[in-house]
Design brief:
By secondary structure, this protein is of the alpha/beta class. It has one domain: Mannitol-specific EII, Chain A. The protein is about 50% helix and about 20% strand. It has six helices and six strands; from the N terminus they run H-E-H-H-E-E-E-E-E-H-H-H. Strands 1, 2, 3, 4, 5 and 6 form a six-stranded mixed sheet that branches. A hairpin with a 2-residue loop joins strand 2 and strand 3. Helix 2 packs across helix 3. The longest helix has 17 residues. It is globular, with a radius of gyration of 14 Å.
Amino acid sequence: MEIADLLTGPEAVLASVKTSGKKALLAELASRAANVFALEERRLFDRLIEREALGSTGIGGGIAIPHGRMPSLAAPRGLFARLAQPVAFDSIDERPVDIVFLLVAPEGAGADHLKALARVSRLLRDRSLVDKLRATESAEALYALLVESVQAQSAA
């Protein structure tokens, strides 16, 4: 599973999200994902909140990978967001988050969901890529960085 399979295009990338906190951020991501992937916004938001109640998806280093499952989805999909200002996210290292990759998978996609999570996690462990993402302003450029970095890693 590649990042280009998850991010359907620049429309699935948010370049400068302004939000007041974790819950507001999840609401914004649910709203945008609902529009991009034709999902039920409130149901997705509820799923994200339920998942966060199990433990924060803030993985450290200013990065979070919130995720949930939706029955109406045919394949895993992603939404990337770079925040204008970091927000508290109850991350494992207690650092605020400014890079977020929302992952939504079909209800029955056990292995595919885990593969997608692993792929996103691997991608966002690349410090030089994350630094470039933090320095990039446009959704198109962010999308290109995310997709091209994967192609470069595959070629190496």
